[in-house]
Amino acid sequence: MAFKDEEQAKAYWAENISLLFKLLAVWFVVSFGFGIILVDVLNEVRFFGFKLGFWFSQQGAIYTFVALIFVYVFKMNTLDKKYGVDE
């Protein structure tokens, strides 16, 4: 990567880390919060014939993780273009 100066590099990495923590927080809430902590409350709701808490712990967290990967790729491409370090 070729940043113009050290300040631009620090700003880039600050935005990168901020994005990373936000996406990890979403994944934590979905996998741990919905799949473990709130499972009893969510099991009162049915989703495609399954209890919603069970669905989140078995499939929902995985689907969310895959979706977050695509969001991360899209956002990082945008960030790279913003700082002029895209390929």
Automatic annotation (TrEMBL):
TM helices/strands, residue ranges: 20-42, 54-74
Domain of life of the organism encoding this protein: Bacteria
Keywords per UniProt: Membrane, Transmembrane, Transmembrane helix
UniProt keyword annotation of Membrane present: yes
Positions of the Sodium symporter small subunit domain: 9-86
Name of the protein in question: DUF4212 domain-containing protein
Organism: Pseudoalteromonas neustonica
Species classification: Bacteria, Pseudomonadati, Pseudomonadota, Gammaproteobacteria, Alteromonadales
